[in-house]
Amino acid sequence: MLTSDTSGVTLYHKIRERHASPIYPYSILGRTVHIVFAEPYIRTLLDNSPFTYGVGRLKHKFFQSFMPLNVGVSEGDAWVRRRKMNEHVLNTAVDRNVPYTYSTHLPTNFHQFYELGQMMMGRIVFGVNSAVPPDVMNVFKEANNIGIFFSSHSPVSKCTYRRYRQYISSAYHHPSSNSLVSYIQNDTTLNEDEVLDQIPHWMFPIIGLFTGTIPRVLLLLFTHRMFTTDERKLRRCILETLRLNNPVNSTFRTALHDVSLDKVYSKGTQFLIINNPILRDPVIFPHPNEFIPDRWLDTDLENSYYALMFNQGPQICPGKDLVMQLATNYIQYYLNQLRGYNVEVYPVIDTKNIPQMINICEIKFSIQPYR
Ligand code: HEM
């Protein structure tokens, strides 16, 4: 599942065909995880996170290597305090709605969108006008190593960690105006280590937004000849792109004490929600493989426990509104720049059958003036 079937769809359907149980035990990397299929149990897990259901072992291990005090791996009172700080910072950013200026040279391939992502992350999180130094970014590269799950040693070298930590600490103490770090309140109840451990969980998702989600939205808009810059319509297009190609394809949880679902599970049991197949459930999302943004006119759908792009419940992504705002602003800019131009796109996509995961490295736009 972690290799070829990256969105977990094949695994999900393979088990579904053979077993009708709402929760099914399965071995992943030599450990048993209980895959949760039925919506009522998904709702129970998400609504009771992170109090009854804490972070899954794999995510815990990954975060442990460079941000052990992050909200995403916290429980109980610590989670409440860290969550409040994250919400304050991210909601302040939405309220300020900083008008960023973008280069008139539009990115047209993966490499250029990645550069844009680095640049935008530097601006949004740290208020700098250039990309964050590469040796700071090495912490993500080194931590993102499958070996982490088999070894007790941190994959992040001391030298990399020191450079990265110096950078974010200096940004926190000398914040540039209108940056996320400048919105951290002085009277926060968090100590400095806790504050610094929240910052990386703003860095990598912003890069991912500009490198992955925004090019996919643009690809689907061009493919469907939808050149709308209307904010509400674009919002629906972004939600629909995330439904079809959600980057967060799995949600792991650990039972923090004995729990009763379809039966009793003991403390420590690992649960797994595979988000992407649920986002294509044909009963909830008719014509599930088609790009139909107007399905999101139904606002109840967005709040349902089938709409798992940002998850639901207490741990719903606190960056959701910021994601919508940043993506809408940038896509409006991109489309406005293209007036008078013709755009051809690669890969060519079957509009009735959008792939489970459009490879962002393959996306290319060719922009030519109309003759
Ligand atoms: C398309 C972009 C994004 C998607 C699809 C997404 C999705 C998610 C999901 C599904 C979760 C819940 C994980 C869980 O329940 O275990 C989550 C958590 C989180 N996200 Fe996002 N996210 C995105 C972008 C962002 C951005 C841009 C930020 C910040 C700048 C952000 C900050 C966070 C944080 C801090 C958490 C942890 C919340 C907690 O555990 O209480 N995300 N995100």
Your description of this structure?
The chain has 371 residues and is an alpha+beta fold. The chain has one domain (9-369): Orthogonal Bundle (Cytochrome p450). Helix content is 44%, strand content 11%. It is built from 13 helices and nine strands. It has helices spanning 9-18, 39-47, 57-64, 76-96, 110-126, 134-143, 158-173, 192-198, 200-223, 231-244, 275-278, 299-302, 320-337, and strands spanning 23-28, 31-36, 53-55, 250-255, 259-260, 264-265, 270-274, 341-346, 364-369. A five-stranded mixed sheet has the order 1-2-7-4-3. The model has no long low-confidence stretch (mean pLDDT 93).
Protein traits:
five-stranded mixed β-sheet, 13 helices, 371 residues, single chain, 9 strands, two-stranded antiparallel sheet, binds protoporphyrin IX containing FE, alpha+beta, 44% helix, Cytochrome p450
Number of helices: 13
What count of structural domains?
1
List the bound ligands: protoporphyrin IX containing FE
Order the strands across the largest sheet as they lie in space. 1-2-7-4-3
Quick one: biggest sheet?
5 strands, mixed
CATH architectural designation: Orthogonal Bundle
Give the integer mean of the pLDDT values. Answer: 93
Which CATH class?
Mainly Alpha
CATH topology: Cytochrome p450
| Fraction in helix | 40-55%
Distance between the termini: 48 Å
Strand-pairing-aware structural class: alpha+beta
Q: What oligomeric arrangement do these chains adopt? A: single chain
Series of H and E elements? HEEHEHHHHHHHHEEEEHHHEE
Low-confidence sequence ranges: none
Apparent shape: globular
**What name goes with the CATH superfamily?**
Cytochrome P450
| Strand percentage | 5-15%
SS elements, strand count: 9
Q: From the alpha carbons, calculate the radius of gyration and give it in angstroms.
A: 21 Å
